[in-house]
Description:
Strand content: over 45%
Number of helices: 0
Mean pLDDT: 77
Strand order of the largest sheet: 1-2-5-4
Structural class: mainly beta
Shape: elongated
Oligomer: single chain
Radius of gyration: 13 Å
Amino acid sequence: DYRFEVVQVASAGPGRSDVTVRLVRAADGTPVRNAEISAATAVSTIAEPAGYHRFRVETATAGPQTLQVSAKVPGSVRIERTFNTSIKAMLT
């Protein structure tokens, strides 16, 4: 039903990167604006407009890293579903 997209990866200083992600509906790619997105290994998180979330993560080494991301999406009868995924990106 849903998928995460990496929007941007940027250096945030030595040993840290900012990773911006968004949750979209798989059927049509529209952003899910009311989702609560979190990352297990994030040092901090910032919710941005249009359903984007930016996470600051510590990177022990340069190269491929895995960021565990989850989202709670309210349903039509206020039931929350949790989706977990791993985002792989080149972090510096």
